[in-house]
Here is the input.
Amino acid sequence: MKRLLPKSLVGQLLALVSITLLIAQAINITLLYRGAQSQKMAEASLSAVVRLAGEIERINERGIDELRLRRDGRVRRYHPIMTANSIIGEGQKRLPDAEQRATYAFDNMGVGVQTVEVTRVDSLPPNLTNSVIGMGDPRRRFRSADYRSAPAQVDGFLIMSAQIADGQWLNIASAIRGQNPLLIRSLLFQTAVIYLILLIPLIWLGRYISRPLKALTKAAENFKPGSSDPIEESGPPDTKQLTAAFNEMNARVGAMLDEKDVMLGAIGHDLRTPLAALRVRVESVEDDNERERMVAGIDDMDRTLDDILSLARLGRENETAEQTDISALIETVTDEFNDIGEDVSFARSGRITAKIRATLIRRALRNLIGNAVKYGKKAVISVDKDGDKLSIHIDDEGPGIPEDQIASMFDPFVRAEQSRNRETGGSGLGLTLARAIVRDHGGDVVLQNRAGGGLRASLILNR
Here is the structure.
């Protein structure tokens, strides 16, 4: 059911109302149709009762023989026929409700009958051909507006047999009127009018509600903490309150980020100043090995501090995204690693551009390539294009990562190798920072073990 419904709020509202209205109208049409059928049966039954009652009164007044036969001896047209037994056979389905109503009608008219039997048939029995009423007479000419020169359309026949006082049975057939085409047309017209009366205001109401919601959705998708402009409050009161709450949230988030930036600046200044002083003092240590270990420790602290501050400030960068030659960017990073003796290769396959913040993507590439050469000895870089997606793959020849640990590698301070010695050490923030940078660009970083051994880190960007 969800797949069939439209995706928009207005579409779903109109679809649900239309379905509900269609069900209600279907029930209404069914009830009207059954009512029309019952009315047609009641009309045919009433016509039969009236004709039989009139015939019984004539019999009581003038005698049977005088009324049954004309001078030429034929049965009179449109009049009941008299039989010794009921013309309705035992195998035919009788209509108890119609029989009960006919009995009451005879009693109310003061006409005495012993038994009444009623049934409905689709085709007229031969012996009742001249004893059927309600068919009309094509030979008559009416001057009224509803004149018809052809017999009326019928939807079957109602046969009624009444046993009179002397035990004889009077039998009459009454035509059941066919379906009036005007009824169907009126119901269809009624349905169309109801749809127009209800759906036009609903369309207007849906647009009135959805317009500010679309603006709010767009603002949420493009949300940049502290830098988004307030949204105009419009629409119904509930929508206005939602927009006002979003604007207040945006202002609060901006204020919190401003406070965080001030705090981070103070932390960076307070930590880097003693680290710089400590580095100066370390230079005076006479033992070369001890001095190198101390300098390496200070460098690790400085890199960790830089990663933490960069991760915390992500999303508040002043650099704007620009169309950048991705191949040239990768070559620049590759040359940096080659200059320090690392085995990093990249086969350029032409100019590929994407709208990025080059400084941040360069840092993410450095982190991923650095992990590849640290744990996998070498890094082979390739680029794939798939529509609007651009994937930068970094393959290494290391041992890979157990499948159940890949997802946790992006958590802060988590490393595949548990040791934190100087040779393989690190802050454990490289992958976290790389993924945060790429996700801030609308992409992602994916890790997967290669079939031939080693690990592939894929940096996926939207062009």
